[in-house]
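Appendix B. Raw example, untouched.
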Amino acid sequence: MAGRSRLPASTRALAARMDKAVREYRMLRAGDRLLVAVSGGADSMSLLHLLSRRLPVYAPGARLRAVYVDMGFGEGSEERCLIMRAFWRQLGVSGRILRTTIGPLAHSEANHENPCFLCSRIRRKQIFATAELFDCNRIAFGHHKDDLVETLLLNMVFGREISTSPPNLALHGGRYHLLRPMLFAEEELVKAYAADNAIPLFAQECPSDGTSRRQTIKEWLAALEAEHPGSRENIFQSMRRVKPDYLL
């Protein structure tokens, strides 16, 4: 990235963390066709913004696309899509925008499942359909370090298993690879990057925001970190030092 020394500290730091992730987990190769799933939040929007600059360094000749699935909450669907289109034009990225009613359906009496589970499942299906449409072999999500720690604890506390979101997951015999290039980036760093680069952000107006199990885990972690600074980082590093002989 030219002129790195003149860039904001958040830009240099996030680029360095993403460089490390892409290199360490061999996420990208020359000629790859990469689809970035964006939601309007700081994490996925920052990921697309940075990849639009760094992809030629990671994978010469690679192609970048984006996909946004609007969940249909509230009255702001059209405005959210307009913001997304303008952002993509600014970056020189093309992709697919889908307006749906997934959100209201998931929160209706017709749904007997967890609303977040149904929303996630249907959104993921739309993302894979878009990857197939654009012939993409890599799909990138904006999950950062804090997300991976929270997912680990969610799965332990509520799912009775020890697992998280892997950095580079091959699916369907290697047809697709799910990537998380920001796994080494802290949530606060991602937010700082978005602010320093004037990235437009918006929320989905989901009625479950702030009331989910993930929010409970976030609050637990915040309290633990306040009492024992470094706890979140220690949990993250523990996922890289698993001792199977000392598990059941």
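End of appendix B.
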